[in-house]
Predict the 3D structure of the following.
Amino acid sequence: MKAGYVPRFSRAERLLHWVNALGFFFLLATGLILYLPRLSVLVSRRQLIQSLHFWSGVGWLGALAVVIVLGGRRVLATARELDSFDRDDLRWLRGRKVPQGRFNAGQKINAVLTAAFTILFGVSGLLLWFGEQDTRYRFASTVILHDGVMYVSLALLVGHLYLALIHPATRHALRGMTLGDVRVEWATRHHAKWEPEGVHIDRPEPQ
Ligand code: HEM
């Protein structure tokens, strides 16, 4: 381990994140071509784009499932960590400066929503596809759900990218998601309650 740095994300966690991001961007691009009339006219091969969008969605969900299975307990432990909210998380959400664990409350909400939206994208996408083949599977609310989830995901993504790439206080996190480790000083400042496995961090005594 590099001196002055602590491991933040395992290989499995990083792989899961980048497989998810890659799939999401591809689906967003092909989805927008189908959704925006101007782009549809420009690309013109609607049938092909529709098939690409559907099969890449199937591939995306399949690849995520494979990484989760291969990641095993470590990925499940991360999911449990993201899904546990304590009193400090609630205080943090009310704007108080309280110590946070490996993930702050905002990140936990982002992760829970991202997981829920992935499932909703999958279910509504399958219904849309089957609805094209058989009118019994055609429901008016399926399109509203698929498009609605896309709008909310896009809004979340803009905030996420701002924090990951632009905001000076948080963009160091990108090192954790690419190389796997972050500076000890950054970790203690942003995630004071986080205790990385097998690593001792000297923290100042609370006043
Ligand atoms: C170029 C695109 C992206 C970049 C640069 C990026 C960057 C990052 C970074 C640096 C983290 C770790 C934050 C930390 O240290 O705690 C992270 C976490 C995460 N990312 Fe991304 N990300 C990208 C795309 C996406 C996409 C497309 C999604 C979902 C649709 C996504 C969902 C998440 C989630 C759920 C987490 C964990 C919770 C959180 O930190 O908010 N990311 N991302």
